[in-house]
């Protein structure tokens, strides 16, 4: 059999790759342009203003941009960590125990995936406002912990990765149930839990609706809502556009790094087969 | 001992159940409650307790459904979805099939580059494309103008649908491509080795063997893409500062937000939100039922 390169498929894929890289390359170039260069020079050539743009962004309202980045890291990091833990214990219980109501609980939690976020966010805001939590870090963190999807994945993963015989043998030896989970099931489920953590991290980092509804003080904003508020002010003050552009570039760097660094944990294959069940 | 053993799974499930109760069940119940009530002025309308919540039955629903903006918004979202879902999934399937071909080159690079937009929040993606749609900063317009043409207006009228569809195609194709590609990799190659030896073209193999085998993944991606489409919010919200032709009620989601937080009409917003949830659930369950019935027969 001939092993020549098939050029048509290769070129079509490269075309797709170029299309996906265009906005990223554009923002990379645009962030290097000074205010006057932005509207006057060809956009795929670098400018001379990168350092002044960075300095200006850092100086903007006493460095509020970096606070937004920290907030995003906090919401996504802590939220995804708690989410992975809750998914792990729930998935383990649903996969490894036979009890009345198991099917009902699982179905009800899964239905949560289908609930429109806006139908949840408005009453969540009003209820949290009643207990004085609206506008605080908690108001974004708490609703992000339960991930029906994460529980589903953890259940699939626990069923596949934790053998019943091992659990039974440890039970015979008199191990307590909590210990069974922490010292046997948890380590076996860990690779799957990293995947759940990553998916939930991206979901929270990319979320706009929930923090936009919940937060009013820009000191608590994640970077998505922060840049949005900056863009809105930019509509009347185009001088802010260079800040928005520089901020947009910096905001996508952490996620791309996370993504390239942990490539082997992006187990999309875990997602397949949802329809089968 | 046997008794305590029986409660073990419930103990493990307790955090999830509590969170579900507090952040799913309770808010939905509260939305339903709000949707059936209204604020009414009591007496002369003076003083702190001058307004009280009264039961109004289905009045809010009647008002919500009679509002032509809701229906128009739903129509706009359907039109956007009809453009987005086939384009995005068509491209995702095409790219996945090309990646699965034995003699394609630069596969790792292309796969990574096409998956990259998944790491970009919708709000940032809209922001980047929004600037690329602005004739004064876009390289596309720069080149078109240099050639003596004026580009299409993507920020007004029908162009907006194209603008929004493009943002979401850009953001969603890679993820769906990976889901489909993973399904393709799970198919044992022996299944089409003999077809290849019999002289079938790769296109025939893709159409006759691969696509039928990965149907569950295609159904899955279609289902979740459609749901995500109905929830479009961040993208039109981001484009709004760049154009004057995107109203605050462009999509039903935006209308709920405006009614609740800009106009302070919590009760009517709740009714609209409940209608959106009911329609979403109805569509989802009928779709899943249809799929299961077809799978069973």
From TrEMBL, chain A:
Pfam families in the cross-refs: BPD_transp_1
Where in the cell does this protein reside? Cell membrane
Report the transmembrane regions from the record.
7-29, 73-95, 104-126, 138-160, 180-205, 239-262
Q: According to Swiss-Prot or TrEMBL, what is its membrane topology?
A: Multi-pass membrane protein
Tell me, in one coarse class, where this protein mainly resides.
Answer: membrane
One Gene Ontology cellular component term attached to this UniProt record is: plasma membrane
Give GO BP annotations, semicolon-separated. Answer: transmembrane transport
Domain ABC transmembrane type-1 span(s) in chain numbering:
69-262
The keyword Membrane is annotated on this UniProt entry: yes
Q: Which UniProt keywords apply?
A: Cell membrane, Membrane, Transmembrane, Transmembrane helix, Transport
Superkingdom of the source species: Bacteria
Write out the similarity annotation. Answer: Belongs to the binding-protein-dependent transport system permease family.
Protein name in the entry? Carbohydrate ABC transporter membrane protein 2 (CUT1 family)
> Native species of this protein?
Lentzea atacamensis
Automatic annotation (TrEMBL), chain B:
Q: Which residues cross the membrane?
A: 12-32, 77-100, 112-134, 160-184, 213-234, 269-291
Highest taxon in the source lineage: Bacteria
For the keyword Hydrolase, the answer is no
Pfam families the UniProt entry points to: BPD_transp_1
Bilayer topology reads:
Multi-pass membrane protein
Instruction: Alphabetically list the UniProt keywords.
Output: Cell membrane, Membrane, Transmembrane, Transmembrane helix, Transport
Q: Where does this protein reside within or beyond the cell? A: Cell membrane
UniProt keyword annotation of Secreted present: no
Principal localization reads membrane
InterPro entries per record: ABC_transporter_permease, MetI-like, MetI-like_sf
The record places domain ABC transmembrane type-1 at 74-287
By sequence similarity, the record places it as follows: Belongs to the binding-protein-dependent transport system permease family.
Q: Quote the protein name from its UniProt record.
A: Carbohydrate ABC transporter membrane protein 1 (CUT1 family)
Organism of provenance = Lentzea atacamensis
Lineage of source species: Bacteria, Bacillati, Actinomycetota, Actinomycetes, Pseudonocardiales
């Amino acid at each position: 059999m001939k092993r020549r390169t098939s050029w048509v498929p290769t070129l079509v894929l490269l075309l797709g790759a170029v299309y996906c890289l265009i906005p990223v390359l554009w923002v990379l170039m645009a962030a290097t342009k000074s205010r006057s260069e932005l509207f006057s020079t060809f956009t795929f050539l670098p400018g001379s203003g990168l350092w002044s743009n960075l300095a200006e962004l850092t100086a903007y309202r006493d460095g509020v941009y970096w606070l937004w980045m920290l907030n995003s890291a906090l919401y996504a990091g802590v939220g995804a960590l708690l989410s992975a833990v809750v998914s792990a214990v729930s998935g383990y219980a649903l996969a490894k125990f036979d009890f009345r109501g198991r099917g009902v609980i699982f179905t009800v939690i899964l239905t949560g995936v289908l609930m429109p976020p806006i139908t949840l966010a408005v009453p969540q805001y009003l209820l949290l406002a009643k207990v004085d939590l609206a506008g605080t870090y908690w108001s974004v963190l708490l609703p992000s912990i339960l991930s029906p999807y994460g529980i589903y994945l953890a259940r699939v993963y626990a069923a596949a990765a934790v053998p019943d015989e091992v659990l039974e043998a440890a039970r015979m030896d008199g191990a307590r149930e909590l210990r069974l989970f922490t010292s046997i099931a948890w380590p076996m489920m860990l690779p799957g839990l990293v995947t759940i953590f990553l998916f939930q991290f991206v979901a929270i980092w990319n979320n706009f609706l929930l923090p936009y509804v919940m937060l009013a003080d820009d000191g608590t904003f994640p970077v998505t809502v922060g840049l949005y508020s900056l863009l809105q002010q930019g509509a009347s003050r185009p001088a802010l556009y260079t800040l928005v552009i520089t901020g947009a570039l910096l905001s996508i760097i952490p996620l791309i790094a996370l993504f390239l660094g942990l490539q082997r944990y992006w187990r999309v294959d875990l997602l397949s087969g949802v329809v089968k069940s | 001992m046997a008794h305590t053993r029986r409660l073990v799974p419930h103990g493990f499930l307790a955090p999830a159940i509590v969170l579900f109760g507090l952040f799913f069940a309770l808010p939905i119940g509260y939305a339903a409650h709000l949707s059936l009530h209204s604020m009414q002025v009591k007496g002369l309308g003076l003083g702190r307790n001058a307004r009280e919540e009264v039961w109004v039955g289905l009045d809010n629903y009647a008002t919500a459904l009679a509002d032509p903006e809701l229906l128009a918004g739903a129509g706009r979202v359907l039109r956007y979805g009809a453009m987005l879902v086939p384009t995005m999934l068509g491209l995702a399937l095409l790219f996945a099939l090309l990646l699965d071909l034995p003699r394609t080159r630069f596969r790792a690079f292309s796969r990574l580059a096409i998956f990259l937009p998944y790491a970009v929040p919708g709000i940032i993606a809209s922001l980047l494309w929004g600037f690329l749609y602005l004739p004064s900063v876009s390289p596309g317009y720069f080149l078109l103008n240099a050639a003596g043409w004026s580009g299409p207006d993507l920020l007004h009228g029908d162009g907006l649908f194209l603008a929004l569809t493009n943002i979401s195609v850009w953001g969603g194709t890679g993820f769906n491509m990976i889901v489909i590609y993973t399904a393709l990799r799970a198919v044992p190659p022996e299944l089409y080795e003999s077809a290849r030896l019999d002289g079938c073209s790769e296109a025939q193999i893709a159409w006759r063997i691969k696509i039928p085998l990965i149907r569950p993944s295609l159904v899955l991606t279609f289902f979740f893409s459609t749901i995500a489409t109905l929830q479009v919010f961040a993208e039109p919200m981001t484009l709004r500062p760049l154009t004057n032709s995107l109203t605050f009620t462009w999509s039903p989601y935006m209308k709920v937000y405006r009614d609740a937080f800009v106009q302070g009409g919590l009760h009517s917003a709740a009714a609209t939100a409940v209608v959106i949830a009911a329609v979403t659930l109805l569509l989802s369950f009928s779709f899943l039922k249809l799929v299961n019935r077809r799978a069973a027969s």
